[in-house]
Amino acid sequence: DARGRPSTSSRPVTMTAVMSFATSTRATLGADVAASRRSGRRVARRSVIGGASGSAGTADDKVKPDWAGDDLLSKVVDAAISNKVLYEGIMKPMARRTLINTAEKNGVAWRDIAEELGNEPAVKQAFAEIENKSVEYPEYYLQPFHAYAEGNLCWQAAVEAEPATYSMALRVWPKDRITADTAQKRLRDSYTGALRAHVDEFYGKEPDTIVDVGCSVGISTRYISDAFPNSKMVGLDLSPHMLAVAKHRDAGEPGSERRTWVHGKGEDTKMADNSVDIVSLAFVIHECPEYATRALMTEAARILKPGGVFVMTDNNPKSPVIQNLPPALFTLMKSTEPHSNEYYTIDIEGMLRECGFEHVHTENTDPRHRTVLGSLKK
């Protein structure tokens, strides 16, 4: 079992005990953590785009959180997660409750939305139309993640993805009294704003075709499509369940005639060489091992036209918010994201350059997230 053996202790285990353990360990490791912060690589951060709610940071910012990678605190958290009793009995259900409670206390009817989509015949019909039975799923995609035993290859994940995404957006601005719709729009507009600025500066023309890799239920796809109203849009995902919800939600929406939903692999899109203007990955890379991230970039370089744009947005390892999450939250986050340690230590900009991209830069597009962009060398 990748998550370790059940504990043989007869003492009852509680999340309070786990969090107390992580907290006390963090305190006793204060000197080590401080040393890690002093010796960590320092990287200057670019300014926030449209960022009244964000922080531009300084050149002394730490590269990643102490709870990710090879740091001692990270290893302590990983040890707790590897205990199957803790993970299955406490962490996984608590992670779900945290998401659901955040959504529902802010007016997102999580359970109602999930029930509605789960009972909708049109969703099942869309699944039958979209599913490509020849798709071979990579091993990393078959692991449990996001507190689902089957990952994204199940209906529960698909019907809950929309409210989960709104819950995620609300957590970016916890002190702002805003609706879930406002939070979602603010999150997506910061991303598309960074993309538009890069396209205007380095590409110099309107894109014909945009591919949104790992599009999930299509929220990012529709926002990008709205930002580029003359472009053809392809939403590509490995989960036919997610794509079925995306196609159902998109039916009859403005611009839906420009959007196509494709069941396939981002590492092997089957698209022609030099046929795409923009490849986007929104909140995808943190779910991938490092080798898959490189494969995604390599495939993007193959299908992009010369000068075409690669763009990704995801958690920002240098964000003070991410780095200073309380032990309960970062433990729950890591418990549902099996590739966190790799994600928070990958040099995304360096990997892009190695894959043939130039004009590579990072924008801190909100208090929690970064957007990394690059143009394929001509």
Query: What can be said about the biggest beta sheet?
Result: 7 strands, mixed
Structural class: alpha/beta
Would you tell me the overall average pLDDT?
A: 86
Order of helices and strands, N to C?
HHHHHHHHEHEHEEHEHHHHEE
CA(first)-CA(last) distance: 47 Å
User: What integer value in Å does the Rg equal?
Assistant: 20 Å
**Global outline:** globular
Explain what the structure shows.
The chain is 46% helix and 13% strand. Helix 11 (290-303) links the parallel strand 4 and strand 5 (304-315). It is built from 15 helices and 7 strands. 44% of the residues are buried. By secondary structure, it is an alpha/beta fold. It has helices spanning 15-28, 30-39, 72-81, 84-105, 110-118, 121-130, 155-172, 180-203, 219-227, 240-250, 290-303, 320-323, 327-335, 340-343, 348-354; strands at residues 209-213, 232-237, 259-263, 276-282, 304-315, 357-363, 369-376. Helix 1 (15-28) packs antiparallel against helix 3 (72-81). Strands 3-2-1-4-5-7-6 form a 7-stranded mixed β-sheet, with helices on both faces. Mean pLDDT is 86; it is low at 1-15 and 21-60.
